[in-house]
Amino acid sequence: MYHLKIEIDLEQFKGKSLNRDIRTHYKKRNKTNNEIYDLVYFKVRNSLPIRPLTNYTLKICRYSSKALDYDGFVGALKPFVDGLTRAGVIMDDKWLYSGPWKVNQQYQHKKFGQKLLIEVIESKEVKIWKS
Asked: How far apart, in Å, do the first and last CA atoms of the chain sit?
């Protein structure tokens, strides 16, 4: 069973609000997103699954001295999850494949910086989509 755990240092994005990037001009947002995609790829490239996962659980925890509102927090995570898709870890970030993301924010003193801890866990549990 596949299990990926990566830590991403957010200090390189200091001065950029990933939450605010959601609402910026698409060219600026795309530049930041491409940086994130590359960062995620370099973190996972040596631990890719045999084929992209279609049934998985996604856990993400953000460590920071500041708390974000929920929608801004989840919205700011989107490029990191898209990076997992582009790298070939997951097939897609659709609800059908992942179910609800398990997200959390933890306080961490600012002297330790900000980071994300991302876990992708292959799941045997079938996620049922009812229309």
From this structure: 30
